[in-house]
Amino acid sequence: MRIELVQGDITTRAVDAIVNAANSSLLGGGGVDGAIHRAAGPELMAACRELRRTELPGGLPVGAAVATPGFRLPARWVIHTVGPNRHAGQTDPALLASCFRESLKLAGSLGAGSVAFPAVSAGIYGWDADEVAETAFDAVSGFAASQPESGIELVEFVLFSQEMVAVFREAREG
Q: E strands, 23-169, where?
């Protein structure tokens, strides 16, 4: 499994699946979540409302993942995961690692060969970027070692700023 760092907008990535740093309601928000909802179009909101009506009436739990079509995005699927919110006392790195692992498991089950991740929980959820990067690399590397038959050949970390790319680069090299 190749792991690449990309500075840019995750909504423009031509990969099989992009991961949305969602909130548990799945009904949109700010940051990456809002950008994905805007780019995917109103069909994404309708699909998320249907998930809430049927499979997830209480919302998506922290660390879990669920998929919807990508609709107007270049990506075929959007994998929604809810990162832990440090401001709400969710400080267990295992919850953060679960976001990456569960998203990859789901991507593999969908037949995705390429997946793009944002820096889950590094924004308004208050996690230190260094800790997110280290956790992300550990989770992805662990998944690749334990599930080589997943079919996932490429994982991109798509990061908005050059500063965040530098943090992830340092975590990868360290």
A: 65-69, 77-82, 114-117, 154-159
Percent of the chain at pLDDT above 70? 100
119-138 pLDDT, tens digit per residue, is: 999 988 999 999 999 999 99
Q: How many CB atoms lie within 10 A of CB 165?
A: 19
Tell me whether residue 33 is one of the annotated catalytic residues: yes
Task: Give the model's pLDDT for residue 123.
Answer: 87
Tokens 């940051």, located at residue: 31
Burial class (CB in 10 A: 0-12, 13-18, 19+), 174: exposed
Q: Distance between the two ends of the chain, CA-based, in angstroms?
A: 19
Catalytic option among 9, 16, 33, 130: 33
* Total residues belonging to the chain: 174
**Phi/psi at 67 (nearest 5 deg)?**
-115, 150
Kindly indicate whether the domain formed by 2-173 is annotated with CATH number 3.40.220.10.
Answer: yes
Report domain extents, the chain.
2-173
pTM of the predicted protein model: 0.97
